[in-house]
Design a protein that fits this description.
This protein is an alpha/beta fold. The chain has a domain of 148 residues: Rossmann fold (3-Layer(aba) Sandwich), CATH 3.40.50. The protein has nine helices and eight strands. A five-stranded parallel sheet has the order 2-3-1-4-8, sandwiched between helices. The protein has a three-stranded antiparallel sheet with strand order 6-5-7. The chain is globular and about 45 Å long. 35% of the residues are buried. The mean pLDDT is 95. The structure holds BIS(adenosine)-5'-pentaphosphate (AP5), magnesium ion and zinc ion. Zinc ion binds next to loops. Zinc ion (ZN) binds next to loops.
């Protein structure tokens, strides 16, 4: 049976950083709904045009658009063995839609626990590569030359929604709409919480260990 891993956590908690590593380690596709939307924005597709106003203001894109895009993506051959979800689900209707689609397959849910103050620091210093989408940080994970990607030499840029007011709005939206999923998955015995306020490698080790430990028993 395929393996489906869900990474939960606030905006800037480190989902993308960890999902890339987990995907490589486990041989699973890394699916970030945020990255999929940004690709649609870049290519100026109809979906990208619909998503833009929500993303730029830090609000969630409507469920129907996200769910359709996600199910379309995970139907691709590279997801046959499973995938690591980064940024999905983010609302209860999204979680219910995924649950219905997975049927008997129970996902493994890992929650990256990071305080709001730390999230603000992470988002404000984040830099992304235009070439290969690698995630850097001006202080916490700096490339050897400022503004240039170590991996591919590409130019680094700052995300539109990493401005301070937008980060604050994303945090509000997270607490109102996404944080309840911690309870949703805990109640199903599927969630493991991991301290996300350590170095990326330490967090990664804990995530791998949590997955190796097997599903959590419900009482
Ligand atoms: P999305 O792209 O998913 O943004 P997000 O959830 O806000 O999360 P981020 O990508 O900002 O953070 P991350 O947790 O991936 O952290 P990262 O690893 O980069 O979504 C963007 C928008 O798209 C949403 O606002 C919404 O509009 C829309 N959208 C997407 N999915 C949707 C859905 N399902 N439903 C509705 N709308 C949706 O790390 C952050 C920074 O910290 C980096 O600089 C990194 O280098 C650094 N860092 C990472 N780990 C560490 C560490 N351990 N120590 C120090 N620094 C670290
Ligand atoms: Mg991300
Ligand atoms: Zn790059």
């Amino acid at each position: 049976m395929a393996t489906v891993v869900i990474l939960l956590g606030g905006p800037g908690a480190g989902k993308g950083t960890q999902a890339v590593r987990l995907g490589e380690k486990l041989g699973l596709a890394h699916i970030s709904t945020g990255d999929l939307f940004r690709e649609n924005l870049k290519n100026d597709t109809p979906l990208g045009r619909q998503a833009r106003e929500f993303m730029d203001s830090g609000r969630l894109v409507p469920d129907s658009l996200v769910i359709e895009m996600l199910f379309d993506r995970v139907a691709a051959p590279d997801c046959a063995n499973g995938y690591v979800l980064d940024g999905f689900p983010r609302t209860e209707p999204q979680a219910l839609a995924l649950e219905a689609a997975l049927g008997d397959l129970k996902p493994r849910v890992l929650n990256l626990e990071v305080a709001d103050e730390v999230i603000v620091q992470r988002a404000s210093g984040r830099r992304l590569c235009r070439g290969c989408s690698a995630i850097w940080h001006a202080t916490f994970n700096a490339p050897s030359k400022a503004g240039v990607c170590d991996t591919c030499g590409g130019e680094l840029y700052q995300r539109e929604d990493d401005q301070e007011e937008v980060v604050q709005e994303r945090l509000n939206v997270y607490h109102a709409q996404t944080a309840p999923l911690v309870e949703f998955y805990s109640a199903r015995g599927l969630l493991v919480g991991v301290d996300g306020e350590r170095s990326p490698s330490e967090v990664n080790e804990s995530l791998v260990a949590a997955l190796a430990a097997g599903p959590v028993e419900t009482n």
